[in-house]
UniProtKB/TrEMBL annotation:
SUPFAM superfamilies: ALDH-like. It is an enzyme of class 1 (oxidoreductase). The keyword Transferase does not apply. This is methylmalonate-semialdehyde dehydrogenase (CoA acylating). One of its GO terms (molecular function) is methylmalonate-semialdehyde dehydrogenase (acylating, NAD) activity. InterPro entries: Ald_DH/histidinol_DH, Ald_DH_C, Ald_DH_CS_CYS, Ald_DH_N, Aldehyde_DH_dom, MeMal-semiAld_DH. It holds the Pfam family Aldedh. Keywords: NAD, Oxidoreductase. Its EC number is 1.2.1.27. GO terms for cellular component: mitochondrion.
């Protein structure tokens, strides 16, 4: 295991997490088990969001390279689908070990390219690792049903892989989201072409190296890069049977429509606006700490980040205390000790968030905490936005209507739980929603009436563990079969049902029957 060995060696000398070298090179393609320099004429620069230093240049894969990736994945599928489920299970066990052993290396890559703080970057890897661990259970997931119809007849179902599948990833979880996709695809017997985000492909490349190291055969996982043209290829090439997408609404709708028009299965997780209701009977300390962490952690760039807090009745008095907690969070470079949130991904994303904050103020909301002027002395060039709290917003305001995807919490005041539920249920998104309360009856009402796919009760970011599935709904999801867990296995497999008849030697078979067998 090359990375593992390198890292162990380095650990003796390092007193803090390893940072990648300042010199950069071009990100390679990973096709047929080899890391290949692309022949692309166009590249996309990846800059460290804290420093603006160029980390790498990502090629826009050429048509020939994309074709080669599909050819490699198609050829590899012939053998890979014939491997026993036990050997694929073994690969998942080996891969989870390799990821665990290289956790710091993966997290460092994330900090350098994506900007999140080191401990949170390890959480990014860990949540993906849990999916790999769950795929070590593939022998159970792949089981079908069997019915003995009569003494000489059986009907049974088997789950079969689809063939070549593709994954298209967003920037905000450079390890976790690739790990939602390819381990499930591979464990079920498919081969995969992955397109990491062009803004932070490093973690996916390290994962590809680990796949090589644990002996996943050439062509079973391939990585291509690029943006629009690469996506167009992955959603239309006839060798690709299914497309998994996670990202924003615009790309997601386009990809879902294009993939399905080309006859492919598609699952697409899109944008979000996640609400938390705070009832006056909640444990105040717990609720305010949880909301603060979930709104501002990862600089608000999580699809399950809490972006709206609805304070009900007397709980409205707690908003100033929330501001105090948010003020205590430290904004800094991701490798700095005690940093709570790092920079946003690009200067453009930062500028967009700033404009939305301004719009809130212009439309009459109160800006209780304005992170636009945050100073981060060691990283003057970084895309930093401090925690921002917009209070007394309404659902008509732009800051509420749009997904800001930054460390910005919009607070709304209502009188009753019913009003809070109406607000959430009127929102077009349905990724996650939480309630903070000590009342079992209120929690039960919320759970049953809220129109969101992932519900938290005194839990701010209710992302399901991998033995469940990621179940965003409404405008946060297109498709009908969710990511990872049982649903993920179903997405990447199709059922075959076999009916067999083994008659006795002396059975009376002299006459043909023409009616429908029953
Ligand atoms: P994005 O949509 O800009 O990019 C995602 C992928 O789509 C990238 O690989 C990119 O190359 C490709 N892409 C972008 N624009 C495209 C276009 N016009 N045509 C074809 N392909 C295109 O998303 P992002 O900014 O990287 O990620 C942030 C978004 O992802 C947020 O909206 C967030 O809510 C969402 N997200 C959702 C979930 C979820 O599970 N619901 C999880 C993570 C992120």
């Amino acid at each position: 295991m090359k990375i593992l060995t390198l890292y162990k060696h380095a650990q003796h000398k390092l007193h803090r997490p390893p940072q990648l070298s300042r010199s950069f090179s071009t990100t390679k393609l990973f096709i047929n088990g080899e890391f290949i320099e692309s022949q692309a004429a166009d590249h996309i620069e990846v800059r460290n969001p804290a420093t603006q230093q160029v980390v790498t240049r990502v090629p826009k894969s050429t048509p020939q390279e994309l074709d080669e990736a599909a050819r490699s994945a198609s050829l590899a599928f012939r053998e890979w689908r014939r491997t026993s489920v036990l050997s694929r299970q073994r690969k998942m066990l080996d891969l989870q070990h390799a990821i665990r052993a290289n956790m710091d290396q993966l997290a460092s890559s994330i900090v350098n390219e994506q900007g999140k703080v080191f401990s949170d970057a390890k959480g990014d890897v860990m949540r993906g690792l849990q999916v790999v661990e769950d795929m070590a259970n593939i022998t159970h997931y792949m089981q079908g049903n069997k019915l003995e119809v009569s003494s000489d007849m059986d009907t049974y179902s088997v789950r079969e892989p689809l063939g070549v599948v593709a994954g298209i990833c967003p920037f905000n979880f450079p390890a976790m989201i690739p790990l939602w996709m390819f381990p499930v695809a591979l464990a079920t017997g498919n081969t995969c072409i992955l397109k990491p985000s062009e803004r932070d492909p490093g973690a996916a490349m390290l994962l590809a190296q680990l796949c090589n190291d644990v002996g996943i055969p050439p062509g079973v996982l391939n990585i291509v890069h690029g943006s629009h043209d690469t996506v167009n290829f992955l959603t239309s090439d006839s060798r690709i049977r299914a497309v998994s997408f996670v990202g924003g609404d615009k790309a997601g709708k386009y990809i879902y429509e294009r993939a399905t028009q080309h006859g492919k299965r598609c699952q697409a997780n899109l944008g979000a606006k996640n609400h938390a209701i705070v009832l006056p009977d909640a444990n105040k300390e717990h609720a305010l700490n949880a909301i603060s962490g979930a709104a501002f952690g990862a600089a608000g760039q999580r699809c399950m980040a809490l972006s709206v807090a609805i304070f009900v009745g007397k709980a409205q008095d707690w908003v100033p205390e929330l501001v105090t907690r948010a003020q205590q969070l430290r904004v800094d470079g991701g490798f700095e000790a005690d940093a709570d949130l790092g920079p946003m991904i690009t200067p453009e994303a930062l500028q967009r968030a700033k404009l939305l904050i301004q719009s809130a103020s212009d439309e009459g909301a109160r800006l209780l905490l304005d992170g636009r002027g945050v100073q981060v002395p060691k990283y003057p060039q970084g895309n930093f936005l401090g925690p921002t709290i917009i209070d007394q917003a309404t659902s008509q305001m732009q800051c509420y209507q749009e997904e800001i995807f930054g460390p910005v919490l919009t607070c709304i005041h209502v009188d009753t739980l019913d009003q809070a539920l109406d607000l959430i249920n009127s929102n077009r998104y349905g990724n996650g929603a939480s309630i903070f309360t000590r009342s079992g009856a209120s929690a039960r009402k919320f759970q049953s009436e809220v129109e969101a796919g992932q519900v938290g009760i005194n839990v701010p970011i209710p992302v399901p563990l991998p033995m469940f599935s990621f179940t965003g709904n409404k405008a946060s999801f297109l498709g009908d079969t969710n990511f990872y867990g049982r649903s993920g296995v179903n997405f990447y497999t199709q059922l075959k049902t076999v009916t067999s008849l083994w008659r006795k030697q002396d059975a009376d078979d002299r006459q043909a029957t023409v009616h429908m067998p029953t």
